[in-house]
Design brief:
Elements: E1 2-6, H1 11-20, H2 23-30, H3 35-54, H4 56-59, E2 65-68, E3 84-86, E4 92-94, E5 101-106, E6 111-116, E7 120-125, H5 132-138, H6 141-149, H7 153-171, H8 184-189, E8 192-199, E9 207-214
Parallel strand pairs: 1-2
Antiparallel strand pairs: 1-6, 3-4, 5-6, 7-9, 8-9
Length: 215
């Protein structure tokens, strides 16, 4: 399993990605409503295309490899570009590279793309503020207690949230309000393992990423 992350994407990086992309994908990026979504889509696509053409050994490994994506890496970037279909709840799947799954996420601190030969879900989040109502609505009793007891509750909330959302993305449903208070036991019983890593980049703010995959 391979995870690429990119700390930030400005106009220069976005424009550069667009010049490399096949027309079909350029149209997808152009259709995004906000600049942040355009950046996420463009960078995620670049990381996915590069990984497929250069990192198949790591994609097929059971261990997790995490790399900071270097935008200057262009070898074979779009020689066999991935094509997509979307599941019932909007989760993207690759149609022209059999046996490869991917998932993307972004936050203010980073854009991430996870690629594997198994179904996966990923979420990324930096320290985030939360209200009492959000804490009550989104977390179960055990999770709320962990946040309240933590010396850095905003950081602990972010860690827990990435694990919860990665699990939902693994299932292919996305966030379901009725299931927000699911527990770690629920994930285990569904055959899902969740790995959480804190990334401290050379520049920029730290962030958590959680990867959900089959146990």
């Amino acid at each position: 399993m391979l995870i690429y992350y990119f700390n930030a994407a400005g106009d220069e990086e976005l424009n550069r990605m667009l010049t490399w992309m096949p027309l079909q994908q350029q149209e997808v990026v152009d259709g995004m409503k906000t600049l942040s979504r355009k950046r996420e889509q463009a960078m995620s696509y670049a990381m996915l295309a590069y990984a497929i053409n250069n990192n198949m050994d790591e994609i097929g490994s059971d261990s997790i490899t995490i790399k900071n994506y270097d935008i200057s890496q262009t070898e074979g970037l779009f020689s066999n570009p991935p094509l997509f279909r979307f599941g019932e709840h909007g989760k993207p799947y690759i149609t022209n590279h059999q046996g490869i799954w991917f998932n993307i996420s972004h936050c203010r601190q980073a854009i991430v793309t996870a690629i594997s030969d198994k179904e996966i879900g990923i979420d990324v989040e930096g320290r985030r503020r939360f209200s009492d109502s959000l804490l009550e609505r989104a977390l179960n009793d055990e999770e709320r207690a962990a946040v309240v007891a933590c010396t850095d509750p905003e950081k602990e909330f972010a860690r827990i949230w990435t694990r919860k959302e990665a699990y939902f993305k693994w299932t292919g449903t996305g966030i379901l309000i009725d299931h927000l208070k699911c527990t770690e036991k629920d994930a285990m019983e569904a055959g899902c393992s969740i790995d959480t890593i804190e990334i401290v980049p050379y520049s920029g703010e730290p962030f958590f990423l959680s990867l959900a995959h089959k146990s």
